[in-house]
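Posting for a labmate who doesn't have an account.
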Amino acid sequence: MENNKNQESPMEKLERGNQKHGMGLKARRRIGNTFSYIGLVLISIIWITPFVFLVLQSFETADPGWSARIIPAKFGFDNYVYLFSAKADFNRWYFNTFIIALALCIGQTAMQLAMAYVLSRFRFKMRKKLMNLMLILGMFPGFLTMIILYNVLKDLGLTQANAVPGLIIVGIASSGMGYYVIKGFFDTVSKSLDEAAMIDGATRAQVFVKVILPLAKPIVIYALLTAFMGPWGDYVFASYIAFGNPQGYNVAVGLFQWLTKEQIPYHYTHFCAGGVVVSIPVITLFLMLQRYYVEGVTGGAVKG
């Protein structure tokens, strides 16, 4: 009788085994999550340290040159005052960049939206071949065309001091091939909406403006943000077109001049302050519109 009482039924043994197995899985999951969090924290610290150093150095007023100190010896706003004073060309660089960003924000977005809508909704001869051609051309690095573009812009008088209009023209003219993500988003919008609107008498343009665009708000904001953020970090092509003339510099090219061997002892902290000022509009816009940006990326990441 006692042996029978001490013996467990098969169901009881199975339940006890599942409980032990479940506890083991939970323990392993906790350990795995702990190591993952530690790794993410370390990566975040490594990633954010240079930015913290940049911000702190922008308030250093004891010495304008490079310093290995993380905490400034003397805090102040002199570097920011210098940026917007008559002694520096930062005002012009900032204005040039803002004009380029604003023009590309409008022109590039309009070009990409129109191209994406045509390739998403229209079916015409050579459509697939055109898309394949643009895909192949997009695989070539952009710097391969810099020499010919510079010569064309030079003949038109759009280099050096007049580099800003040249950068705007090149940026808008080459934007049509960046239709991929937007087309993917348009493909998710039902074509029955187009057909219903056209039955009611709407033209293709009216369908695009009054039906498709209101439904495509996330991808429109995505296109606006990416177009606006591009010019703030454009250095290679912008420096090539400006060609040593400060009147045509954008902020990336202008600030880099303060890091040359001759200038860095006198302008390093000014460069740090300029980096902080340049990041403010981009970070502000991205934080305000982050939700739409993510929706646009995920909505456009479909097979088209």
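Reply:
Got it, the structure tokens are right above this. Residues 218 and 292 are 4 Å apart (CA to CA).
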